[in-house]
Amino acid sequence: MIQREKQKLKVLLRKKMLELAYNSNSHYPHIGSCLSCIDILIQTIIFEMGKKDKFILSKGHASLALYVVLNYLKKIPNTQLATYFKDNTQFGVHTPSTLPKDIPLATGSLGHGLSFSAGLAKAYKLLNKNSFPRVFCLMSDGECNEGAVWEAALFASQHKLNNLIVLIDKNGFQATGRTRDILGDAASVDKWRAFGFYVQSVDGHNLFDVEKALKKTQKNKFKPAVLICKTSRGKGVALIEDKLTSNYLHLTPEIYKKALEDIERLI
Amino acid sequence: MRYSFAETLLSIAKKDKHVTLLTGDLGFNLFEPIQAELKDRYINAGVAEHNMITMAAGMAYAGFQPWVYSIAPFVTIKVLEELRNDICLSNRDVKIVGLGGGFDYAIAGPTHHMLNDVALMTSLPHMKVFVPGSSQDIAPMVLRMHEGKGPAYLRLTKAEKLTVSFTNYSACRKVIGGNKLTVIVLGSILNRALPAISGFKRKPDLFLVTEIPFSLPKSLIGSIMRTKKVLVIEEHVDIGGLGHYISSILHAKALKINSFDHLFAKGYISKHNGSRDFYLKENGLDKESITKTVKSLL
After folding, report:
1. Where are the domains of chain A?
2. Residues of A whose CB is below 8 A from B53
3. Shortest CB distance from B54 goes to which of A108, A116, A124?
């Protein structure tokens, strides 16, 4: 797909997320966080992953971003996606356990995804010594507060899980403030390098940048990889972009209308 | 008992290449033969239990059957959320093996004891709990765990090899036949209840429960209907243990009884440390205390 077509996806899927969030009539879909990681998901899931590769959304509160990507790939039908946030839906605010092929782990409690991904990456290597699927795990920078993340990082490094690719959506925020003001920058290059990872810093909204970095990880034979993706929470919606309020934004008709106009200007 | 476990798992792992063993840096002088046989399917996950449990979930997703081993509190209460979210919610085939149920770790102290694992684990979806009564139970139990696909928890203790032999393994077995009183014990406290009860000329019925959930066998229902007196003994807190389990079944089946007594772990009365027998005595679970209770009920 040519770069311009890919750029259009950034707009298309953002609009879909905004529509679903607006229809939920709630502040709860974590729209800011979804807007911050959607570009990483587009490049990774739609353009990078092979059929046997797996994607774990460890920051489960950004489920809406995963749902619209899987919907684009026809893994979630439109009729089912339309049930988002309604009674009797599979698609709540956090990822479900009912679609294990495409969503291997139900998340929402932070700090679980990397351990699951490390176990899966290790299992794939045990099953086949020569060629094995890759496991992509998206975390948020705030999530790196969790101790289990670093337990998993130690394991992945010790076991040379070069089929594990960690993607950190580094938007600089967590629920109630800037990450640097709460427990410091847990998604820093030096920390991940010290834990034995092959580290790259990229612009998490630049698909080409993410693409290049993902390709580079394939040459790495002995280390798990991490892409520290610099992003903005609420990316594309001026009212909330890089603002704390983005996490709990309730889309009123006025805000929704303005947000759709803003998104068009992303290309 | 842990040696029986290691031997049985080794024999299973030789035949089933999907069996893996994850240990939280424990098993010195125990797992060396397994390590030699399993090679890279033996994983020392380090002192990192949260990661170990969720990794096991990831390995199960790929088709393995991971067995996860540590001291009981470190693979139950410490990692309860990982068990719930990553294993039980999706009914994944992961086996949890906790060494040191009850006061088994003795003078190691309360941080190493596990008095509420049955309550915690049975409250999780799909989780089956196995509580061996003696080392003879281990082999059939581990085989059942291996065959049953889904999460299971094995509460290992140092429970001695018993000299008495009783009927083949099942989740609830009659150990002694008698009348006047129905005694039901959970797992390893059998080695204190059995000598206590053996001393009576007119013995009560003694049943051993080693799995929860389980269905009450006809022999147990018959005993309860005949004696109308039930005594449950367990090295576990009262809430969520065998006593609660039995009493809720009696209620559901509308079985009328005259008395229901329950000996259970109350905790740390003196706040001092000691042997398993020291704690059992403080909690009224030693041989003499059990004898006294049984005598008063006969």
Report:
1. 3-264
2. 115
3. A116
Residue among B18, B43, B54 with most chain A CBs within 10 A, to mutate? B54
Binary contact (B86, A105; C-beta < 8 A): yes
Interface confidence, given as ipTM, is 0.95
- For B172-297, CATH number out of 3.40.50.920, 3.40.50.2300, 3.30.565.10, 2.60.40.730 equals 3.40.50.920
Judge whether B61 is closer than 8 Å to chain A, CB to CB.
yes
Q: Choose among B40, B43, B50: nearest Cβ to A115.
A: B50
pLDDT, one tens digit for every residue, chain A (267 residues)? 678 888 999 999 999 999 999 999 999 999 999 999 999 999 999 999 999 999 999 999 999 999 999 999 999 999 999 999 999 999 999 999 999 999 999 999 999 999 999 999 999 999 988 889 999 999 999 999 999 999 999 999 999 999 999 999 999 999 999 999 999 999 999 999 999 999 999 999 999 999 999 999 999 899 999 999 999 999 999 999 999 999 889 999 999 999 999 999 987
- CATH class for domain A3-264? alpha beta
Task: Give phi and psi for B159, each to the nearest 5.
Answer: -45, 130
Q: How far apart are CA A72 and CA B127, in angstroms?
A: 37
**A105–chain B nearest CA distance, Å:** 7
The answer to whether B23 and B31 have CB atoms below 8 angstroms apart is: yes
- Closest Cα of chain B to A81: distance in Å? 22
Instruction: Give B-chain residues touching A152 at CB under 8 angstroms.
Output: 51, 54-55
Strands lying side by side in the sheet with B182-186: B172-176, B205-209, B182-186, B229-233, B259-263
Place of tokens 């008709």: A253
Q: For B2-156, which CATH class?
A: alpha beta
* Equal fold, B2-156 vs B172-297: yes
- Among all chains, which residue has been given the structure tokens 């684009």? A72
Angstrom distance (rounded) from CA B148 to CA A83: 35
